[in-house]
Every structure is written in structure tokens, then in C-alpha cells.
Amino acid sequence: MLRLGIKSLLAHKIRFALTALTIVIGVAFVVASFVTADSLRSGFDRLAEDINTGTDYTIRGELSFGDITDAVSPAVPADLVDDIAAVDGVAIAKGGLFVDGVIPVDGNGEAVTTFGPPVAGGNWLEDESLSQFFLIDGRWPVGGDEFAIDVTTYGDDSYDFEIGGTYQVVTPTGPREFTLTGTAQFGFPENAGIGAIFSLFETPTAQEVLGYPGEFTQINARAEAGADIDEVRSRIEAVLPDGIEVLTAEDSVEEFSDATETFIGPFQTILLVFAFIVLFVSMFIISNTFNIVLGQRVRELSLLRAVGATPQQVRRSVLTESAIIGVVASVAGLGLGMLGALGLKGLFNALGASLPGGALPLTLRTVLWALVVGVGFTVAASLVPAIKASRISPVAGLAEGSTSDERASLGWKRLASGGLLLAIGLVLTGMGLFFDFDGATPQLTTLGAGAAITFVAVSVLSPLVARSVVSLLARPLVWIMPISGRLARANAARNPRRTSATAVALTIGLALVTMVSIVGQSLKVSFGERLASAFTADFIVTADTQAGLPKTLSSDIRAAGIGTPVGFDFDLVQIEADAAPVSTVIETTLTAARIEDLDEVINVGVTEGSLDGFDPLTGLMIHTDVAENDGLWLGDQVDLTFVSGDRVTTTVAAIFEGSGFWSNWFIDSALHARVATSAFDDVVMVQSAIDDPEAARASIDEVLDGYPQAVLEDRQEFQESIESNLNTVLVLVNVFLGFALLIALVGIVNTLTLSVFERIREIGLLRAVGMTRRQMRRMIRWEAAAVSLYGAVVGVVLGAAFGVATATAIPADIIDGVSVLIGQIVFFLVISVVFGLIAALFPAFRASRMNVLDAIADE
Amino acid sequence: MSDSATVAAPSTHAAAQAVAATKIYGSGDTAVRALDAIDVTFASGQFTAIMGPSGSGKSTLMHCMAGLDRVTEGQVLIGETDLSTLSERDLTLLRRDNVGFVFQAFNLVPTLTAIENIMLPMDLAGSKGDTAWIDDVIGATGLADRLKHRPSELSGGQQQRVAVARALAGQPQVIFADEPTGNVDLNTGAEILGFMRNATDEMGQTIVMVTHDAMAASYADRVVFLVDGKIVDELDDPTPERIRAHMNQLGA
Predict the structure, then answer these.
(1) Which of A231, A341, A780, B112 is geometrically suited to a Cys-Cys bond with A36, CB 3.0 to 4.6 A?
(2) Which domain holds residue A517?
(3) Helix, coil or strand: residue A396
């Protein structure tokens, strides 16, 4: 039976290739997600080991909560360096600085900024392997007027830097001129290193300009040769004051891996989700193909049964055939996936992510996953067709051969099983949307399972309505093209089961696209409205680097007399409210801003208490939601602990009901300055005192000359740029969902090719009685368009339902009200018809080229 | 024996004719001469049957005459049009407008109703056809009350009558029928042949029918016998007995 399976595959290479293609794409997705994630992991791990070679110990301020992915370690005092150097077994200890947000400006006045990686400043050390800063060209900077720059930026043609030239560097303490003396690399020069961007200074200068007088961000130490690493570690620990910790190189590597995993993990998961969508859609295509092909092979199979094959043997032969397709597709998918991973990496680097280099790692786990997924999905999809094939009776072939226009099993059984599945699917979907789960994973899994079951239910129910809906949708064809249109419409409606199975792939793709469109649009509208009502400031200044805007910016604007600037600094805080009836400990985001000016730039909406007389050093303002949920009220004592470990007691002095857009907790910047070392604001809002907007903008621009990382926008522009960020995400999602549509396209090609083959005599007859090739092609193209439109309409209806439900389920402070872009949805429908027309090109060509005589003679 | 000498030049009375028509399949040693320099004329308003044993080339002759296939050498004319000069597209249009077909089986498009099948060539051409004539044809089929039915809802005989009606509806210069009764029982066969006979007698339709059934051939005005790609004999005003006698002779 194995030989039979192989022979049957070889006899139909095109069909085989098309069926396999759908799985190839799905497997490639799986492989690309694993390989890319593995490559990132191994790259970053290598880098972490690399940069920790030569540094046995890192001594730094301990975070009182959270980890280095969301907070900056507190500084360590400079005099600790000597204490550590004096520890028995320590060969050398030096203070190091590495501070984000130090931006060099090139000869053309262009600031060096990136998407993602830090743009930092630091100090160089004589012992290069201790700091991991290695000199490449020129010499190390000395004194207060010199600096070195990373070799990546220096070598980047889009920036203009020359050794010996004088350039502005914007530091947390403000802009300053330095002479460039050399270039350096982070990590050993013989390795590729990471494309970090940094400016280096001599240690005293670094401490001064980076805002760490008498302090370091960390101390790097190395043990004497042959010393026991752990023993020396304990001895170092013994001399450390409270709030300062020591990490071995091993700890640092692990911490770095954990930190990178926080973005690699979700990235891998998202790609895998798309992979499973593609594979899920492929299952329908494969199942449909097997159904049609086995239908056409009824004679052959019944002959097999007649000469003595058992039903089990027939079933096994079909499953063998699908397993072979699965294996071949998995192997091809592995190859394509590797290419995809290469492309993804290239794409990220092109976007400026500067990922570590190295070969793409193909692990056994990836290969196994590819095979399991590829073979598993293919065999699972062919299970029902295989069982059906095994039930073919030995005399079935003696009866009339054509089974193309089946009307059977469109009855109660289908309605009942489909209805039951639909109910289960909808209940699960509803639970996923509205039920509060413990964590996102069970919630999303329930939602996904619900959606998948709903789609299966739709595919089961669809044949019940396909004939009438397709006839209705395709009616205009009859008016436009009397005969080709009428035949196209009739062909699309003639086999509701096949039409449904073909269309369901498109249904799923379009349902997802429509859902994303509705949720995205609702999000955009709600966000825009909230944004518009949240603040009243005329101008908003943001930074195009991670670090943010130096706090000097808002004081500079104030000093220039342009208006009222308010800087917002979002910080991580641990809140303990002992005074409340319910004792609460929450980790959350707190906003530090100048409270007395707050209502000039945002709609605060104070409901209780007042901003007048708000004590900047003890006052706390909370949102009404917090007041209600945590039972806090005016006068309650709330303890705030910052990552530095500093702890202050505040008193609730005001409750506000304005948008919680910034956060639900506000303190004054004056208090924040005492407990946190942050030298940066995340955003600065300006209420202009100058009436003419153009003049106001010009005046602010003048101040911003010293802050090349600053981006000045008015309210309109700010709103637009936030919207455009959202659009980018939506486009990205749609590109991935596009793969599901691609699979749908392959499905239509497949079904149509098989249908044309099946209708060979009918086609011969039409050609004999005078249908031209052009009329033939048109008939087949519009048949495909009709099937596509059907799939698309069902998909849009389903997607709209999902979309509205999702938008409703999302809390009102994120999405408030549903918005639908009708135009976009109409566009989706038009695109689907175009998809169908494209899918039909090949089958239509084949049909039109069919030899009339062969077609007539076909038995 | 044959009247080929008298029809060597194109005749205005000929609905279709072949002049030295040769069809060779394959090449070199394996070449097969399916038609060997055949000269034959199908006069206007006549019902002709082509007979011959299996592999005699009768179906090939019909396919070449009907514009479904091309001859290797020689000429085929429908009316005064030389088919060898036509492009694939023009050949299709000629079939649509000037030739009618009745096949042994699978004559009708299953998704179209009886009337839609009858109107198919006209619909493909985008013309209405001669309404009065079509009404006559439909009347003659006796299927006026079943026109909205699909082929699957009609009996085999009814289906073939619809097929003949479709061939007649466009008033083609010639109708080619390939074993039109091969798939139906005797009574139904007689009913269809009678209908075709009427088409010639009352509507003046030229019909060329390929068959191996002497009974069927006896409905024709003239029978042409084909053996090994050559016309070997012919018979006017045939009866089943005379046809069988000729066939036996040829076979011996």
C-alpha cells in the first residue's frame, strides 16, 4: 500500500506540490520563529560572556524591587572602589560609568539616535578588558574637553565625525563641546561586538558630565589568578554596605540572558501564533484536496477493494500519502524557514536593531517541531477523507462515476453537529473575552481555542447555505456577462461542500483581518479622543531615544519665558497604604511632575482636595479609580518605595478624575528629586504664553537647539504621530495575516484545478459548441471570484462580530466605543475578489488550453 | 463504386465537403493514416450516415469535418469556408455559428436548464437567434413543459432530444452527430432518430451521423462506408437489411 501511495503522488505532481506548499509555508513560519529566537539568544549569550570576560565581579546598587529591565541601578560611592581593591584575592577594582541618554551631535548638527539600543556615555579604563571598552583608532580622551566615540557610529557614513574635530555632546547635565580623540569598541575587538552607541570620557570628566559626582554606576573587579571565585565573592560581600550587591560574571551573563528573553520570548510566541494560524488554514485546504481527489478516484479505490484490499489498507494508503506530503513539506519548510529567519534578521538590522551576528542555529528541537507540526497537521487533515475512502464499497466504481454534484449529508446531522460546535466555540470565545482569567496565557488560549472551534463550526455549517448565498452574491455576474457569468455562478454554487471548504480558508483570513481592523480602529479613535481631552498644552516635547529628555530642558524653557513647561517623569514605585482598610502593596508607575502647574497642561479634574496648597514634599494625588479600588481617601498615609530603596511617606492631598493617561499616582518633582536619581523626563508639555503659534514654536525650537534628541510637536502632530505608530503595528499584523490569505489563494488554485480536471467533458462540450477560450477563462475566473467573495463575506461578518465583541470586552479606559471603517472592509471584499481572479489564472489557462477532442473522449 | 470524381470541385449545394482529406497520427515508423485522401461531399438538406468498423476513421472524419480537429493534408470545407485557413478562434466561432453537435453522451451542461442548453450557442454568440424558428424546434421536441428542468431531471431520451434541439436551434449549415443513440434503449433511439429525420424532411437540416448501428443508419438518405481511412462504398435510400449486407461484404 505504501507503493500505491507514492505512485499516486508521483502521478499528480502539481496537485502534490500545491497541497504541500500550504504546509511548507506554515512549517517555515514555525522554523523561522524558532531559529530567529535561538539566534538572538545565542548571539546575546555570546555577547554577555564576551563582555564579562575579564570582569569577575560587578558591584552595583541593589534594586529594592523590579529588575534591570525596568529600572536603573542606584549609584555606588566612589570610595568603595578602594575598599574592594583591598579585599584579599582581588587583583584590581575600578569604578565604571555607563549612563543612557548621552547623545553626540555630528558635524552636520545631526544627533546620533537609534531605535531601541541605548545611546550611552561612560568612562574608559586603562585595563581595557575590565571595562570592555577597547581603543580602536586614535587615543583615549584626557581632561575635560575630549571624548571618544564608538567605532560603529564613527564608521557610519550617514554621520559626519572626524578625529580631531570638535563636536557637541548632549549629556544629562546639558550640552557641551568636546574634541574627538579616538574610537572604541564595546567587547573584544577580535569578536564582532555589539553595535552599541556611546561616548567615552576620562573618569573625572565622565563623573562630572554624566551627573555622578563622587559616584559610579558600578565597580568592576577581577580576582587574582588562581583565586576561588566564590570565596573572593563572599569576602567582597563582607565589605559592602547595605543596598549594594556583587554579581559574578556568571550572574551577569544569566541576568543579561533573562533580560533579553523578556523580548525574545514574546517575539517567538507571536511568530508561533501566526504559524499556527497558517497551519490551521492549511488543514482545511489539505482536507478539501484529499476529499476531491479521493472522490475522483472512487473507481480506482473500489477496484482495489474488489480485488481484496481491506478498508484498513485503503485507509492506510491514504494516510501514507498524506504522511509523505507532510515529510516532504516539513523538509522544504525547514529550508524556507531558514531563509525566512535570515530575512527577518536582515529586516531588523535594516531597522537599526543591530543584532549580534553569527550563523543561524538549527537545533534538533527546531527540526523535530518542523516534522511533528508538518506531518501532524497534514495527517490530521486527511483523517476524515481517509475514513471516507475506506468506506467506499467494492461495487461503487461500477455505478455512474461522477460524484461531483453531491447533495447528500446536507441535512439535520450537519446542522446539529455544526450548531453544537458553534455553541462551544462561541461560549469559549465569550469566556476568553469577558471572563477574568488568572494571567494572559489561559485567557488567550481560551480565546484562540474558541475562535478555532468557531471557524470549524462555520466550515461545517457553511455548505447548508453556500448554494443560496453564492447564487445571491454572484447574481450581478449574470447581468454583466450573460453566459460566462451564468455558468460561473452556477459552477460556484453547484457543489456547496467544495465551495465551502475552499472558501473557509479565506473566511478565516478575512475574519482575522477584519477583527484586527475593527479593534485597531476603535483603539485609535478611543485613544485619540482620550488624548484630545487629556491635555490642554499647546506643545509636546518627546525624545527619540530611550533615555528621555534631560530635566534641564523644562527649566530652560521656563527661563526663556516662553510659557509654562511641565516635565513628566514616569517612575517605578512600590506603594504601601497601611492606613487603608485593606492593606495594599502595589508595584506601579508613578508620575512625577510640577503639581502647581499641572492644570495648565492637562485636564486634571480634581474632585476632592485641591492643588492649591499641595505640599510638594509630602503630597500625593491619586485617581478616583484608585481611591475606590484601594479604599484610599484624603489624608491617608501612603508609603512610597523607589527602586533605590529610598522610602518616603506621603499624604493623599488630592483625588482627580481626569484621564488616567499618565498614571493613577502623582507626586511633585521636588519630592521625586530627593528620592530618585533620574536626570530625565519622559515628556515635557508646554502651555505657551506666546499667542502666535508660529512664534511660540520658533522660540521653543531655539531652546531645543541644545537638545538634539528632542522632538517638538503641537497637539495635532502629537496625536498624529501616536496614531501612525499604531498604524505601523496594524500593518505589521496584517502582513503576517496576509500569509493566511496566501494559503487561501493556494487553496482556490488547488480546488479549481481539480474541478477543471473533473469537468473536463463539460469543458470539451462547451468548447465544441462554440465557447471561445476567452469566454472559458472568464467563466473560470469569475467562478473563483464568486467563491472568494462568499468566503470573504462570511469572514467579514464573522470578523466584525469578533471585532465588536473584542472591542467591547476591552476595558473602557483602553477602548471606549466601537468604530468601524466601512471603506476598509469594502476594500477587503474587493481584494478578496481580486485574489480569486488571480488564483484562477492558472486553472483558467489550463481549461482554455484543453484539447477539445481529448476532453470529449475522456471517460 | 464512389461518386468522388463528380464532386472534386466545390459545389454550391454542398453543406460540407472533404477534398483529399488526410489525417496522419504520429510520425516515422509509427505513423498511422487515419484518413487516407478522402473525398466526400455532404449535400445540403441531406441526412447522411457514416459507417465502418472500429478504427475505420469514421470518428476522425467527423471530428475533422466539424472543425474539432485538423486534417494533415487536403481540404475541409463547411459551406465555402476552408477550415485549414482558420485560426483556432475563428474555428471556434465557425463551430458556434455554423455547426451543430450531438454527442453519444454528456451533451448537456449539467448546471444549465434545458432551455439554457438549447440557447447555449446563441448565448455564447450574444445573439437572440430566430425566435420563431426556435419555438418550432422546441415544439418539435415535445419538451415545452420541461424546459426549466436541469439535465439530471430529464430521461436519457429527453436529454438527447434537447441536444438535437440545441444543434438545430442556431440553424447551422450542418449538424454532426456521433452515435447519438449509442447510450439509450431501442425505443428511445427510434424516437431520437425520428426527430432527426423530421429535422431534415421538414426543416431542411443537413445532418451527418456517425454510427455502427445498421438500424440507426437506415434513417439516413445515404450511407457512406469507411474502412482503413478510405471510403469504400456507399448506399442511397438504405434499409437495415441492405446495410447489413454491405457491412458483411466489407468485413469479409
Answers:
(1) A341
(2) 404-534+716-859
(3) helix
